[in-house]
Structures are given as C-alpha cells and as structure tokens.
Amino acid sequence: MKRRIIIGFITAGIVLAAAGCKSQNTENGAAEAAAEPGIVLTVSMPSSEWSGYVKELSDLYRKEHPEIGSIEWNLVDRSMYSDLLRVSLASQKLPDIIYVGFEGSMEEWKDHLLPLEDQNVLQKLPMPYRTMGSLEGTVYSVPLQIQGIGIAYNQKLLRAAGWERFPETKSEFEQLCLDLEEQDIKPMMNHYKETLLTMANNLFMLPAMAEDNPTAYMESLLEENRQQEYEENWQALADYFDLTLRFGNRDSLTTGAPTARDYFFIEKYAMLNDEGSWLAPVLAKSKPALEREISIGAIPIYEEAERNKLIVEVQALSVVKSSRHPKEAEEFLYWLATSTEASRYLRETMGCLPVMAMNDESLEGLSPLAAEVKESIKEGRTALDVVNCLPGELKNKSAELWGFYLTGDLSREEVLTDYQSLWKDYMKHN
C-alpha cells in the first residue's frame, strides 16, 4: 500500500506539472502566433536546455521560408516530457513535431506518426544513425543529436584532491570520494527526487550497457542458466547506488535536477550524478568560464574499466499524422537534422553534438562535452542507450523497483526477483 500511495502522488504531481507547462507554453505561443501571420509550426522536446537558443534557430529557418509565420517550441524537463506528451495525445492537441524514442517506444506511437519518405535527404545522415528511425522498413523519425549520459565531473575540484582524471572503476570511484572528503570537498550531488526519470531513462540499464548486445542481454533474462551472472550485475548496480547515498548530498532523495545543477554549477560538489552532455548549451550561455572544466564520464559500477561504458542517447524527432501542416513540418525537420546551417548552429553556438557531425572524425568546432562524447564513440567506449527502445510501461515499472531500493522499501534480492517476473510477464504477452 505504501508503494502505491507514493507512486500515485508522484504520477499525479508530474501530470499536473506537465499540464501547467503546456498551458504556459500555449499562452506564450498564442501571443506570438497572433503577432505573426502565416503557418505556425509546433515542436515539443525534452530539452529545456535549448530554451535560450530556439528563437534564433527558428529565425535562421524563417529567413529562407517566409511562409512560416512562427515556430513554437515547447521545451520541458525530461522528468515530465512523457506525461506531457500523453496529456497532449489525450486532448488531441499533439504538436506537429515530437520526440518518441526507438523500437518498442516507436511501436507504441507509430499509429500517430507520419511516415517520412524523402530518402535523398536521409542519405545525408551517417550510418548507423540513418536507419535508427525506421520500424519494419518505414521511417518515422529523423535522428538529430547525440548525447552522452553518465557522471559530470568538475575537473578543477578533482585536481584539488590530487586527481588528474576521473575514475574508471568502482574502487577508484570510492577512493576519489574519500580523497575529496579529505580536502573538505563534497563529492557527489544526487537528484533522486525524479526517481522514475533517473532510473527509467538511465541508471537501471547499466548492467545491459556493459554487454556487446544490450538488447539480447535483456531478452536473455529468461534464461535460468545465467541467474548467477544477473545477480552479480544487479549487485554491482546496487553497490553504486549505495556509494552515491554514502558520499552524496544528505537530501539525495528529495533533491530535484534543477537544484542539483545549481549546486554543481556554483562548485559546491565535485560530481553530478546521472547527468549528460546536454549541459553544454547551459554552460555555453550562462557558465562559459566553467565550460572547459566540466567533463562527462561513464558510471563506474564494475572493477573492469572496459565494462564501464558511457551511455549514448540518440535524440530523434517525428512528425505527427494529426499535424495541420505535415509538409511544412517535414521540411523543417529535415532542415533541422541535415542542413549545414542548422548543424553549424547546434555545434558551434549551442555546444551540441548533431548527428551530422559524425560524418567525419574532426573535433573542430565542438564544445568540450560534445568532443568528449564523439571521441568516446570513436574509441568504442560507449554503449547505445536501449532504454528508449523499451515500451513505456515496462521501462517505468522497472524504474519503480530500483526507486523502492533507494528508499529502502525493497532489498537487492527483491528487486532482482520482481524485475525478472516483470520481464517474463512482458515477454509472455508480447
């Protein structure tokens, strides 16, 4: 009963917050639309970090497309995006362009997405990203940017503790935390308030990320002869969570991502848990002096450094079938994902890593975080995020289990048992 009550409050709060953001963005967009006649395109993304840039980005496009009166961007925090999208669907007010993920997630949404058919434009994208937005031979989304997910490090504070690099193994991570404390530097900032987001999007899949084929690993959870291996992996992940609570902020379970970032940016903590290279646009605009001191590294849950891989998320966008301007929305999406002009703006002004930047090996013009992610990909030290390939229900229920571990409601053994039961039940009915 306790678990149900907790989840009920969390879900209700997120949905209400999402609805509030929707209302605010709609009001702002309505005012802009009234002031500027012409076609109005709407875009929804889990990228609040873009908020200081999208007007200029839109103006770049509208210079060559005077038929577009305005482009309204609904940019929300990742913690509420999924619920906001479902609220928009239920109210039949989906934006023209949305983010939905791949494979299982795309399977859920494909009936609402417009097939994209301009193969000549898509050929500009490098492999393997070019085909990621396809499902059963039909293209539903266009990959836009690549983001690395792990631990954000303040290299200046690490150097103060005698470290010239970030840790690569679990024992090194623990030693770094001890060395930081010896220098009266607070080691880690957690933001477990968004437990579902943190677990569902990133952390609970870390054991799979260490495998050569993460998707096959998840499916093989049904194999009884690999039980010991699963237990070892889940124990390693639980060890990491324990370390984050031991060396993290005292209010780890009630701190949200915005607050955690604020403390990290004023250099109160040396590490920011479960963070990504999406910080680059924020650093470029508001913390340029700190930009070259912030690095992104893999979360070290294993003693074998080669098994600890940086999670890589590919963000792709789709056009919805209900769009009032499907042709114009599709053209804008192609421009945003494949044009030289948009790619240059994303790369040089915003500090992002556009998919188009993977067409060559150069790091020139990339922000420090984007360059780190690209170099890690080139060197084979990354694993493609498979979480956004899972159906939302399975993803969220899996995340809830680890959330209950953090709060002490479930033991390690109970998490593993419940997770395997959840996965088996899903495979049985799908």
UniProtKB/TrEMBL annotation:
Cellular component aspect of the GO annotation: cell envelope
SUPFAM superfamilies assigned to the protein according to its UniProt record, in alphabetical order: Periplasmic binding protein-like II
Compartment(s) of residence: Cell envelope
Leader sequence segment: 1-17
InterPro entries: Bact_solute-bd_prot1, SBP
Ribonucleoprotein in keyword set: no
Domain of life: Bacteria
Alphabetized UniProt keyword annotations: Signal, Transport
Keyword Signal in annotation: yes
Pfam families reported for this sequence: SBP_bac_1
Principal subcellular localisation of the protein: other
Similarity field: Belongs to the bacterial solute-binding protein 1 family.
PANTHER family hit by this protein: ARABINOSE-BINDING PROTEIN-RELATED, SN-GLYCEROL-3-PHOSPHATE-BINDING PERIPLASMIC PROTEIN UGPB
Protein name: Carbohydrate ABC transporter substrate-binding protein, CUT1 family
